[in-house]
Amino acid sequence: MTDQAFAQADPDWVKLISLAREWFQGPLGQLMLHEEQQLLEEELGRFFGGYLVHYGPCADTPLSAPKVQRNVRLGAPLPGVEIVCEEQAWPLSEHAADVVVLQHGLDFSLSPHGLLREAASAVRPGGHLLVVGINPWSSWGVRHLFSRGALRKARCISPSRLGDWLNLLGFALEKRRFGCYRPPLASPAWQQRLQGWERMAGGWQSAGGGVYVLVARKMVVGLRPLRPQRREPMGKLLPLPLAKVNRTSATPDPDKQ
User: Fold this and answer.
1) Residues facing residue 133 across a β-bridge
2) How far is Cα 105 from Cα 111, in angstroms, rounded to an integer?
3) Which of 26, 50, 201, 245 has a Cα-to-Cα distance from 147 of 20 to 30 A?
4) How many CB atoms lie within 10 A of CB 47?
5) CA 27 – CA 105 distance, rounded (Å)
6) Residues 94, 96, 98, 100: what is their CA dihedral angle, to the nearest 10 degrees?
7) Residue 216: CB atoms within 10 Å
8) Would you put residue 80 in left (φ > 0), alpha (ψ -120 to 50) or beta?
């Protein structure tokens, strides 16, 4: 797809993705990408299949999935993007991918619901969807509220809310991981001093990490677990009155016949 053909794209969306890409190239964005890269590599290392689809403003960051044959990157016209498309118009057939990774795609999106539906449709039954987002309940989420740059425009959807969205789309949440526990300080010296805290907090996996990674599996169609039916309490059995039989009157007298 040429740049001329892509000129019909929403200019607000292209501007948002470009601002996000510039922020991820800065010191704080690089710190966040470095910390979440390890989480992604650990999770992607256990998946296998034919196709992995990656979408996000930081498309120049390579993803390592050694057991997946083909890694395809799609999105806005950025360096490293192989298939240029809008966030709600993926040129993929339904159930085309074994793994789909939304790396901060929902954070910098005009329609998070629409983008998530598009990504969910591309995952085959039994495949996996990985969502990376900025945790609003962290120091990075607080920084987002007071930032004046691209971070200010991030949506910062909470992992619990996103889990509900995935459930409605037919996904079962398998894992929730956190990372980037160091506060968003631009000073390299302070970041160096806090490396020990990053390792310690990462081992605890508390919910205060700056980023989260949700791993969800698409349920096979027709095999979604059903809720057990509620059994209504049965009433008490009451004895019914029996009709008394008068054997004298009921038995015919042969003398009177």
Assistant:
1) 212
2) 10
3) 201
4) 17
5) 20
6) -70
7) 26
8) left
Q: Tell me the per-residue pLDDT of 7-47, one tens digit each, with 9 for 90 and over.
A: 567 889 999 999 999 999 998 899 899 889 989 999 999 99
Assess contact for 176 and 214: CB atoms under 8 A. yes
> What is the chain's alpha carbon radius of gyration, rounded to the nearest angstrom?
29
- How many other C-beta atoms can be found within 10 angstroms of the C-beta atom of residue 17? 24
Tens of pLDDT, residue by residue over 88-114, are: 999 999 999 999 999 999 999 999 999
Residue 125's CB: how many other CB atoms inside 10 A?
13
* Contact (Cβ atoms closer than 8 angstroms) between residue 72 and residue 92: no
What is the per-residue DSSP string for 172-205?
Answer: EEEEEEEE--S-----HHHHHHTHHHHHHHHHHT
* Separation between Cα atoms, residue 25 and residue 78, nearest integer Å: 13
User: Which tokens hold the place of 192?
Assistant: 């160096």
Model pTM score: 0.79
Report DSSP state, residue 127.
Answer: E
Cβ burial, residue 153 (10 Å; 0-12/13-18/19+):
middle
Measuring CA to CA, which residue among 153, 156, 210 is closest to residue 180?
Answer: 210
108: which 2 tokens? 């910098």
